[in-house]
Every structure is written in C-alpha cells, then in structure tokens.
Design a protein that fits this description.
By secondary structure, the protein is α+β, with helices and mostly antiparallel strands. The protein has helices spanning 2-13, 59-66, 94-109, 112-121; strands spanning 19-23, 26-31, 33-39, 50-53, 71-72, 83-86. The radius of gyration is 13 Å and the shape is globular. InterPro entries: YjbR-like_sf, YjbR/MT2646/Rv2570-like.
Length: 122
C-alpha cells in the first residue's frame, strides 16, 4: 500500500491544518478531530487496503448503494456515518473521486476557521 498510502497522505496533508498521527497502529489524519484513517490489508477481515473516513449525513448510504464493491460500512465507526473505501484496483480516474471523498471527510469535521481557509484557496 506504500504508493497508494503515500498518495492518500499527500491528499490529506494538503488540506489546511491537517496533521498525521498514528491511531490504533495505523496512519490517521486530523484537523482538530480525525477525518481519515488508512487501514492495511487484513484488518478486520478486509483482505484489501482501505481507508475509513468521516462523511456528511446520508453519504454513507448513498456511496454504498452507488458502488458496494468500492464502499462499505466500517466496523467501529460505521454507526457514526463513516465510510470505508477500498484502495485496491484504483484507476487514475478514481483518484478524483477519492480526493473529493477525502475533502468531504475533512469538511465533515474541520473547524470553521480551517474550512474558511480551504474555501479561500478556491
């Protein structure tokens, strides 16, 4: 997952005020609160690399319904509306959607000051 993980890390850390910390043995990204966690292959019987991320209300159901092969309800955080995203088999076109999903996760938890900074970037 190194190449994919590095790319996810770059997307997350490009967001205002984002920081990486280890949480439960995995790389996690915070902007005040956690918004993304990278998970390795074999975690909770998921035999594929994936991430868990915060999501706006209703997004979990919508994304899982739109592509149940890519999106899933993660254990522990799924009840809070978080989504799981498979990272294996990503094509170049998929990165645009993944970047948008990560930004939505950030927007779901980041404080207003950081959101204003993101919006000012255009």
């Amino acid at each position: 997952m190194t190449g994919v993980g590095d790319r996810v890390r770059s997307i997350c850390l490009a967001l205002p005020g984002a920081a990486e910390k280890t949480s439960h043995g995995s790389p996690a990204f915070f902007a005040g609160k956690q918004f993304v966690m990278l998970r390795h292959q074999g975690h909770h019987d998921h035999d594929f690399p994936h991430l868990w991320c915060a999501a706006p209300a209703g997004a979990q159901e919508e994304l899982i319904a739109s592509d149940p092969e890519r999106y899933f309800r993660p254990p522990y955080d799924g009840h809070r509306g978080w989504i799981g995203v498979r990272l294996d088999g990503l094509q170049e076109d998929d990165w645009t959607e993944l970047t948008e999903t990560i930004e939505e996760a950030y927007r779901a938890i980041a404080p207003a000051k950081l959101l204003a900074e993101l919006d000012a970037r255009g």
